[in-house]
Amino acid sequence: MSPDSQEEPSFWPWHQQEEWPAPEIIKQLQAAIRSAKEQNTAQATVLLDEVGPHLGNRTSLVYSVGRLLMSIGRDREARRMVETAFATHPEDPDVARAREKLIS
Protein backbone atom coordinates (compact mmCIF):
# COMPACT_ATOMS: atom_id res chain seq x y z
CA MET A 1 0.00 0.00 0.00
CA SER A 2 1.39 3.39 -0.94
CA PRO A 3 2.00 5.91 1.85
CA ASP A 4 -0.24 8.54 0.16
CA SER A 5 -3.21 6.19 0.12
CA GLN A 6 -6.22 7.53 2.04
CA GLU A 7 -7.11 4.21 3.62
CA GLU A 8 -6.18 4.24 7.28
CA PRO A 9 -4.42 1.11 8.53
CA SER A 10 -6.72 -1.41 10.09
CA PHE A 11 -6.30 -2.70 13.63
CA TRP A 12 -8.13 -5.93 12.76
CA PRO A 13 -6.05 -9.07 12.18
CA TRP A 14 -7.64 -9.36 8.73
CA HIS A 15 -7.05 -7.27 5.63
CA GLN A 16 -10.25 -5.24 5.34
CA GLN A 17 -12.44 -5.57 2.28
CA GLU A 18 -15.97 -4.37 1.62
CA GLU A 19 -17.71 -3.44 4.88
CA TRP A 20 -20.81 -5.50 5.66
CA PRO A 21 -23.99 -4.00 7.16
CA ALA A 22 -24.12 -4.07 10.97
CA PRO A 23 -27.01 -6.60 11.25
CA GLU A 24 -25.08 -9.09 9.10
CA ILE A 25 -21.92 -8.66 11.19
CA ILE A 26 -23.82 -9.00 14.47
CA LYS A 27 -25.58 -12.16 13.29
CA GLN A 28 -22.28 -13.73 12.21
CA LEU A 29 -20.44 -12.74 15.42
CA GLN A 30 -23.26 -14.10 17.58
CA ALA A 31 -23.08 -17.41 15.70
CA ALA A 32 -19.31 -17.50 16.21
CA ILE A 33 -19.70 -16.75 19.94
CA ARG A 34 -22.31 -19.52 20.26
CA SER A 35 -19.96 -21.97 18.52
CA ALA A 36 -17.10 -20.95 20.82
CA LYS A 37 -19.30 -21.45 23.90
CA GLU A 38 -20.20 -24.93 22.61
CA GLN A 39 -16.44 -25.65 22.33
CA ASN A 40 -16.80 -25.86 18.55
CA THR A 41 -13.56 -24.02 17.85
CA ALA A 42 -13.44 -25.02 14.18
CA GLN A 43 -16.88 -23.56 13.46
CA ALA A 44 -16.17 -20.42 15.52
CA THR A 45 -12.91 -19.93 13.61
CA VAL A 46 -14.60 -20.29 10.22
CA LEU A 47 -17.35 -17.83 11.13
CA LEU A 48 -14.93 -15.30 12.61
CA ASP A 49 -12.48 -15.51 9.71
CA GLU A 50 -15.39 -15.06 7.31
CA VAL A 51 -16.70 -11.89 8.96
CA GLY A 52 -13.29 -10.47 10.01
CA PRO A 53 -12.41 -8.85 6.68
CA HIS A 54 -15.74 -6.99 6.63
CA LEU A 55 -15.74 -5.25 10.05
CA GLY A 56 -14.75 -1.85 8.71
CA ASN A 57 -13.75 0.70 11.31
CA ARG A 58 -16.18 -0.43 14.02
CA THR A 59 -14.21 0.10 17.21
CA SER A 60 -17.30 -0.95 19.20
CA LEU A 61 -16.55 -4.55 18.16
CA VAL A 62 -12.96 -4.67 19.42
CA TYR A 63 -13.91 -6.24 22.75
CA SER A 64 -16.24 -8.90 21.31
CA VAL A 65 -13.84 -9.86 18.54
CA GLY A 66 -10.91 -9.89 20.98
CA ARG A 67 -12.73 -12.17 23.40
CA LEU A 68 -13.72 -14.45 20.57
CA LEU A 69 -10.14 -14.63 19.28
CA MET A 70 -8.95 -15.53 22.78
CA SER A 71 -11.66 -18.17 23.19
CA ILE A 72 -10.42 -19.96 20.06
CA GLY A 73 -6.78 -19.79 21.17
CA ARG A 74 -5.63 -16.78 19.15
CA ASP A 75 -4.48 -14.73 22.14
CA ARG A 76 -1.51 -13.14 20.37
CA GLU A 77 -3.72 -11.87 17.54
CA ALA A 78 -6.25 -10.52 20.05
CA ARG A 79 -3.57 -8.73 22.05
CA ARG A 80 -1.97 -7.19 18.95
CA MET A 81 -5.39 -6.10 17.65
CA VAL A 82 -6.33 -4.39 20.93
CA GLU A 83 -2.94 -2.65 21.22
CA THR A 84 -3.10 -1.44 17.61
CA ALA A 85 -6.68 -0.22 18.06
CA PHE A 86 -5.62 1.63 21.21
CA ALA A 87 -2.63 3.18 19.44
CA THR A 88 -4.82 4.47 16.60
CA HIS A 89 -7.91 5.33 18.71
CA PRO A 90 -6.62 6.24 22.23
CA GLU A 91 -9.68 8.41 22.97
CA ASP A 92 -12.21 5.73 22.01
CA PRO A 93 -14.06 4.46 25.12
CA ASP A 94 -14.87 1.09 23.48
CA VAL A 95 -11.22 0.50 22.68
CA ALA A 96 -10.11 1.59 26.15
CA ARG A 97 -12.64 -0.79 27.75
CA ALA A 98 -11.51 -3.66 25.51
CA ARG A 99 -7.89 -2.98 26.43
CA GLU A 100 -8.67 -2.84 30.14
CA LYS A 101 -10.76 -6.04 30.14
CA LEU A 102 -8.72 -8.13 27.73
CA ILE A 103 -5.06 -7.34 28.28
CA SER A 104 -4.44 -5.45 31.48
Question: Could you write a compact summary of the structure shown?
Answer:
The protein has 104 residues and is mainly α.
How would you describe this protein?
60% of the residues lie in helices and 0% in strands. The protein has 104 residues and is mainly alpha-helical. Helix 2 runs antiparallel to helix 3 and helix 3 packs parallel to helix 5. The protein is globular. The protein starts with 21 loop residues before the first helix and ends with a helix. The N terminus is likely disordered.
User: Regarding quaternary structure, how should these chains be classified?
Assistant: single chain
C-alpha end-to-end distance: 32 Å
Helix content: 55-70%
Question: Into which percentage range does the β-strand content fall?
Answer: under 5%
Number of strands: 0
The helix/strand class is mainly alpha
Order of H and E elements: HHHHH
Q: How many helical elements?
A: 5
What's the overall geometry? globular
Ranges with pLDDT <50 over ≥5 residues? 1-6
> Rounded to an integer, what's the Rg over CA atoms?
13 Å
Q: Major beta sheet, specifics?
A: none
Average pLDDT, to the nearest integer?
92
List descriptors.
104 residues, mainly alpha, globular, disordered N terminus
List the helices and strands and how they pair.
Elements: H1 22-37, H2 41-51, H3 62-71, H4 75-88, H5 93-103
